[in-house]
Write a structure and sequence with these properties.
single chain, alpha+beta, 3 helices, 31% helix
Length: 137
């Protein structure tokens, strides 16, 4: 049986505030400081210190969020993916900065990842003229 704490009479009120937060916009959710203030203002509860309330909220908030997700839980498992050789690949560009002949230059990094083998090819290129800065092998 868990040991009684000074916060026990207020745990139900704190949990109720945290449950309200599940549907509240992000900016309107209770902070631990606001919960501490509301305990004193709304319920006349001032037996617990601010740090005690903070510690409880830090542990309890994720538990309440997990309980709320319980009904919307994803099934554990995996879906095997099958990719035939040469059938699929992913390509992308990203901006990168490279030192070229001692000068810092903005380039574009071309990335191609083959779905079958998982191998990837990365090449910095100048998209304006289509030239690779790395010679082909």
């Amino acid at each position: 049986m868990p040991r009684a704490t000074v916060l026990d009479p207020a745990k139900g009120w704190i949990d109720a505030m945290l449950r309200e937060d599940l549907t509240a916009p992000r900016k309107q959710k209770h902070t631990a400081r606001r919960i501490y203030q509301r305990l004193a203002q709304d319920h006349g509860f001032d037996q617990a210190s601010y740090s005690t309330v903070c510690d409880y909220v830090l542990v309890r908030r994720p538990q309440i969020e997990a309980e709320a997700r319980e009904g919307h839980r994803h099934l554990d498992g995996m879906v095997p993916q099958v990719h035939l050789p040469g059938e699929e690949a992913e390509a992308d560009f990203a901006d990168v900065w490279v030192r070229l002949a001692g000068e810092v230059v903005k380039c574009h990094l071309f990335t191609l990842r083959l779905s079958y083998s998982g191998k990837a090819v990365h090449r910095p290129v100048d998209r304006t003229i289509g030239v690779s800065y790395v010679s082909a092998r």
